[in-house]
Amino acid sequence: MSNSLTQLSGDELDIAVAIALGASKEKKAADNAMACGIPLHFRQPMFAVVNAIGIAIRWRPTVDWSQGGPMLANLIEDGFVMMQPPEMPVALIKGAWRIEGDNVLEAVCRTVVTMFEVKS
Questions:
Q1: How far apart are CA 101 and CA 58, in angstroms?
Q2: What is the percent of the chain with per-residue pLDDT over 70, rounded to a whole number?
Q3: In a 3-state reduction of DSSP, which class is residue 99?
Q4: Fewer C-beta neighbours within 10 Å, C or N terminus of the chain?
Q5: Where are the beta strands (DSSP E) in 4-120?
Q6: Prior bond of 45 cis (ω within 30°)
């Protein structure tokens, strides 16, 4: 895992997650929905989720449980275990992998981006 991934947070991490899921800054929401299952559209400087009637809300899986929570559920199904020892960062652990974050959603997002990097 690249050391820079462990430092990503906030808007940079939100964008990296969208790209890791298969979205592209150049594609429209419908095309990204075909690629990653989420209708994401890049609006400088961030991605937005576009609903069926064209209303866009900011893509912020690092702070929005309705966006990041399903990713956590998928990671748990894939065998990741969440650990939060007292006074330590949250960590998602699977085998030799240990990905940390300051909070649960940050750890989830870093894990998604890390998995993408490993597959690439």
A1: 21
A2: 95
A3: strand
A4: C
A5: 40-43, 46-50, 56-58, 81-83, 90-94, 97-101
A6: yes
Quote the DSSP letter at residue 54: S
pLDDT digits (tens, 9 = 90+) for 46-89: 999 998 888 899 999 999 999 999 999 999 999 999 988 888 88
* Helix %, strand %, coil % of the chain (to 5): 45, 20, 35
pTM over 0.85: yes
Alpha carbon 86 to its chain's center: 24
The span from the CA of 32 to the CA of 17, in Å, is: 13
Dist. CA 60–CA 14, nearest whole Å: 6
